[in-house]
Amino acid sequence: MKTRNIFLTAIAAICTLFLVSCSNLLDIPQHGVLDYNTYYQTDEQITSADVAMYLEVRGWEYNVKLCKAMLTDDFWAGGSMRGDNNNLEHLNEFTFDAEEDYVQAMFTTYYTLIYKANVILGHVDEEKGAIARQARAEAKVFRAFAYFDLKTMWGNPPLVDHELAPSEYNVPNGTDEELWGIMEQDLTEAIASGALAEKTSLNDTETWRVTKQFAQALLGKVYLWQGKNSEAAAQFDAVVSSGKYALMDDYSLIHRASNKHNCETLFESNRIHDDNNSFQNFSMYALMTNWRMDKMNWPTDTPIMNTGWGFRVPTKSLYDDFVKDEGVDGYRLNASLKTLDQINSELGITLKSPVIGEGYFMWKLRILAEERGMGNDFVYMANTIWMRYAEVLLCGAEAHLASGNAGKAAEYVNMIRSRAHLPALNGVTLDDIKLEKRLELFGEGTRMQDLLRWGEGSKMAKNGDTYPELQVNGQIKYVPCGNPAYGFKPGKHEHLPYPATEIRLNSAIEQNPGY
C-alpha cells in the first residue's frame, strides 16, 4: 500500500503546486514558472512528473475509448435519437472531416503525453537514483504507447522526441522508419533497464505501475503491425512464460470495480476509492456509454446505474458473430450482451419509448449502481483497462501463425476458447483468430486498428446508410440517415485526418489523402 500512498501524495502535491501558482500570479517575480535547471532534482519532484503521465492516460478514457468504438462495426452511435451527438454520428458514419472535435481531442492528448514523457527524458537524470531510473523507463513506455496509436491511426504523424524550441514548432510528417524506430528503441531500452515494475506473483493486485510485461506486450504489437512476426511472437511468449498473468476464471468479473489489478490485466488506469474526494474519479465516459435510461422503465432494485445516455449500442453484426461461434446461449455471449427479451425477463426493465439499436445491450462493460462513488452518477469506481492477457494470447497466436508455428497459435487460441467454455480447435486459421479477437475484446478499443491492419475497412462501408430504431414492442425500424457521403471509403479512411487546427499552425504537416 505504500506505493499507492506515494501516488496519492504526488497527486496532492501537483494540486497544491497548481493552487499556489494561481494564487501568486500577480506577484513579481512570478513563482508559478518552473526552472528545469533546478526542478526535477528530488524524488518527490520526479514522482510528480511521473504521476502526470498516469493522469494523462487516465484522461484518455472519454475521447480515445469512445472514438475507437464509433469507428468500428461493433457499435451504433446511439443517444436519445439521431442528432443527439452529431460528432459521434460523424465518426460512426465516416462523415467526419479535419474539423472534427473528437479527432482533435485524441490527437492532442497523445501529444500531451509525449510532451510529458519528453520532459522527464530531457530533465530527469538517471544518476539521481532508482526513482529517476523508473520514471525514465516509464516515460519511454508511455511515449511508445502514444506513438503506437498515432502511427496506426494517422499513418505518419510528426515525430517529436524532445521538448521543442519555438524555432522547431513546424515539424513535418515522420517516416515509417523513424516512427516504428523510436517505438522499438524506447521499449527495448525500457525493458532492458531493469527499472520497470513487475508483479511479485500471479495474484499480486498492488502493481498499478507500468510493468516490464506491459512493455513487452506493447513491443510485440509494434512488431506485429510491421509484419515482424517472429520478433512479435518472442515478446508475447515472454509475457506468457513470466507466469505473472493468467485468464480469470470468471469472464464476467474482469472489468468490475471489485477486481482491480486482477491476474489478467497488464495495465489499467487507477481509481482510488476515497469517499472524501470522490470527484477525483469523475467519469463522463460512464454516463455516455451506460444504457439510455430515460427511455426505459426500470425497477428501483436494478443492478444497473439508473442514469445513462446510451452512446455505445451493440450491433446485430456483433451479436450474430457471437452466435456463430458460441450459439444463442453461449457463456461469453451471456457475459457480454443482453437482448431486449433478456433485460425484460431477467431485470424487469422495459422500454417506454423507442431507442436507437437492434435489441442488444452492453453487458460486459455495464455500469453497476454499486460502482458509483458516493452514489453519484458522475463518479465511477472501476478502473479503465488498457491491455489484458487475452489480447497478449490472441496477438501471440496471430504472430505464431504468420511465422509458421501453427501449433503454438492453436494453443493460445484454445486457452481463450477454454475460458469461453468452447471446444478446442485442432488447428486455427487467421479467420479463427479474427473472430475470437472480435468477441473476446469487443468494446476494449482494439478492433478499429485491427480492421485497418487487416485491410477490412469495408466492414464499415454501410455505416451511415440507415440507423435502427428499436420500438417498444421489439420491432426494428431502419431509418435512412439522408447523407449520401456515408461509410468507410478506401483510399481515405485507412487514416484519420490531421486536425485542421494543427494544419493551420504547422505548415510542414502534409494532410492525409481525402481530407
Element layout with pairings:
Blueprint: H1 2-23, H2 43-58, H3 60-70, E1 75-76, H4 86-93, H5 101-123, H6 130-154, H7 176-192, H8 212-226, H9 229-241, E2 265-269, H10 284-289, E3 296-297, E4 313-314, H11 316-326, H12 331-334, E5 337-339, H13 340-347, E6 350-351, E7 355-356, E8 360-362, E9 384-388, H14 389-402, H15 406-419, H16 430-441, H17 447-454, E10 466-470, E11 476-480, H18 500-505
SS-based structural class?
A: mainly alpha
Helix % is 40-55%
Overall mean pLDDT stands at 91
Could you tell me the strand content as a percent range? 5-15%
Strand segment count: 11
Outline type: globular
What is the CA-based Rg, rounded?
23 Å
Name the strands of the widest sheet in spatial order.
7-10-11
Instruction: Enumerate how many helices there are, as a single number.
Output: 18
Q: Mind summarizing the main beta sheet?
A: 3 strands, antiparallel
Distance between the termini: 50 Å
What does this structure look like?
The model is unreliable at about 1-30 (pLDDT under 50). Helix 3 crosses helix 4 (about 85-95) and helix 14 (about 390-400) packs antiparallel against helix 15 (about 405-420). The strands form five sheets. A three-stranded antiparallel beta sheet has the order 7-10-11, with no helix packed on it. A two-stranded antiparallel ribbon has the order 1-4. Strands 2-9 form a two-stranded antiparallel sheet. A hairpin with a 5-residue loop joins strand 10 and strand 11 (about 475-480). The chain contains 18 helices and eleven strands. The radius of gyration is 23 Å and the shape is globular. By secondary structure, the chain is mainly alpha-helical.
